[in-house]
Amino acid sequence: MFDLAFIIEKAVLIGGIITVSLLIAMYSTWAERKVAGFMQDRLGPNRAGWGGLLQPLADGLKLFMKEEIIPNASNKTLFILGPALAMLTAMMTSAVIPWGGKIEVFGRTVDLQIADINIGILYIFGVVSMGVYGIMIGGWASNNKFSLLAALRGASQMISYELAMGLAIIALLMITGSLSLKTIVEQQSTGWWNFFLQPVGFLIFMVCAFAECNRTPFDLPEAENELNFGYHQEYSSMKLGFYLFAEYINMFISSALMATLYFGGYDIPFVNDANLGANIGINALAAIQGITLFLKVAFFIFFFMWVRWTIPRFRYDQLMNLGWKVLIPLALLNMLVTGAVILWLGH
């Protein structure tokens, strides 16, 4: 049956999450420069607005006003498709993340999640693996040797680290028994957070998240001092902006995913959410849960930035050695130990 109210509430939720994702990505650029300034004993952006708060708007306006340049020797269709695909896949991953509990609007109970599908983690892995095509297409279509080398680096890096990430998730699924992110959050709200049950799995997942987001020390596809700016060297104006925004949105979604899978998601620590909801109402509870999740996400975003300005970039052979010779064997061992413990506790 055609349910107009359901379509409207989902459309509003999608619009809200897209807006929040773009705002967080925009102000992550400001926060990154502020964190870098603090760590390097300088001020960072402080001209546009109070404390430089309008700097992201000025940067966005600059990108909009820049001349649009498409190289003559490039494949123009794919050249445009690359950044669009990178941005699309970055935004699509947020669809299955639960941002809070339930709210009541005009007598309807609404989940703060676009789609609660029972294969949520598989959906995220599928969309994330598509993200590499945005880098590959952009690097190849530019008809620039540095861009192509960077795109090849990005593809091999993502393939290498997705294997270890998938094995870390398998160990987590052996504990939770579900691929639904909503179910995983609800399980953690009534027991231990998965971080305490899978600390090694979380460490592997976090390192792989850095590699998937092309963040330092895994930013080999954008190694400026080696590859002249990497896979988006030939891009300008908002096509370049899309690539830069996609990286920060990926960082935001990765932080939300780590918080959801290993740190209880929107679960309020040391509080019984059901009892609190009975006292203050489900709308107020959902607001507190949302704030709780975003505080966890903010911590991980800061951690991404802190690592960038602390640890130097790996050489490419070190990057591959870490992925294939350290993380994958460690993830396999973690999976075997997890299975043995589950069997032992079962008996």
From TrEMBL:
A UniProt-annotated Pfam family: NADHdh
GO biological process, one term: aerobic respiration
Annotated TM spans: 12-30, 78-100, 120-142, 163-185, 191-211, 242-264, 284-306, 326-346
Annotated catalysed reactions: a quinone + NADH + 5 H(+)(in) = a quinol + NAD(+) + 4 H(+)(out)
Documented EC number(s): 7.1.1.-
Localization per record: Cell membrane; Membrane
Coiled-coil blocks: none
Domain of life (superkingdom): Bacteria
PANTHER family assigned: NADH DEHYDROGENASE SUBUNIT 1, NADH-UBIQUINONE OXIDOREDUCTASE CHAIN 1
NCBIfam families: PRK06076.1-2 (NF004741)
Job description of the protein: NDH-1 shuttles electrons from NADH, via FMN and iron-sulfur (Fe-S) centers, to quinones in the respiratory chain. The immediate electron acceptor for the enzyme in this species is believed to be ubiquinone. Couples the redox reaction to proton translocation (for every two electrons transferred, four hydrogen ions are translocated across the cytoplasmic membrane), and thus conserves the redox energy in a proton gradient. This subunit may bind ubiquinone.
Protein name, per record: NADH-quinone oxidoreductase subunit H
Gene name tied to this protein: nuoH
